[in-house]
Specification:
globular, six-stranded mixed beta sheet, alpha/beta
Length: 175
C-alpha cells in the first residue's frame, strides 16, 4: 500500500489546470478519487493509465452519460448507484458488498481505477474507506490513505459515517 502522484499533463501552451492525481496502491492495482469527469477528461484519464471509471452516482445524476463517455474512450466502467447511508432509501448493504468485491477483484487484477461521485467526493470517500477495510487495511492506515487524496476527502466525513463505512467493509463477505 502506497500513494503515488501523477503529474499534471502538458498541453500546447503549458500545463493544464488539472491538479496532480494522487494514486493509492491496493492489491496489485491502484485507485484514486476525483471529480466527476466531463467529456474532455476521458481521453486524458486513459492517457494517464486509468483502466476503469467507477461512478458512485444514481441514474438521476446522469450516471449513464458517464458510462457512454468512458466506454467511448475505451475505459471499463463500473456503476455503484450508492446514495448516502442516511438517505431515505439507502442502497442495500448486500449490493454495496458486491461493489466492494468487484472493486477488490479489479484491483487484484491490476486495474487502475478512477473513483468519483459528484463534486463533493463524499460518497466515493466513504466507499474508498469501506474498500480499504474490505481489503483488511487497518483503520489508521485507511484514514491516512483517505487524507492523501486531500483534506476535503477525509475532513468532511462524520465519525459516524466513517464507522458505518468501516463496518460495511468488515462485514462484507469475501465472495
Amino acid at each position: 500500500m502506497e500513494k503515488t502522484t501523477q503529474n499534471a499533463e502538458k498541453k500546447e501552451g503549458g500545463t493544464t489546470a488539472t491538479p496532480n492525481m494522487a494514486w493509492f496502491s491496493l492489491r496489485a492495482g491502484q485507485i484514486c478519487l476525483g471529480k466527476k469527469p466531463v467529456d474532455r477528461d476521458f481521453e486524458r484519464l486513459k492517457s494517464l493509465g486509468v483502466t476503469h471509471i467507477a461512478t458512485v452516482q444514481t441514474s438521476e445524476e446522469k450516471a449513464p452519460v458517464i458510462r457512454d463517455s468512458a466506454m467511448a474512450a475505451g475505459l471499463e466502467w463500473l456503476w455503484v448507484p450508492f446514495m448516502h447511508p442516511s438517505s431515505e432509501s439507502p442502497t442495500d448493504d448486500v449490493h454495496l458488498h458486491q461493489y466492494l468485491h468487484e472493486l477488490s477483484q479489479m484491483l487484484s487484477e491490476g486495474a487502475k481505477i478512477y473513483l468519483h461521485c459528484d463534486g463533493s467526493q463524499h460518497r466515493c470517500s466513504l466507499l474508498f474507506y469501506a474498500l480499504c477495510h474490505y481489503c483488511r487495511v487497518p483503520s489508521n492506515s485507511a484514514y491516512s490513505a483517505l487524507h492523501s487524496f486531500g483534506a476535503s476527502a477525509a475532513n468532511n466525513l462524520l465519525r459516524s459515517e466513517l464507522t458505518w463505512a468501516a463496518e460495511l467493509g468488515h462485514v462484507a463477505p469475501k465472495i
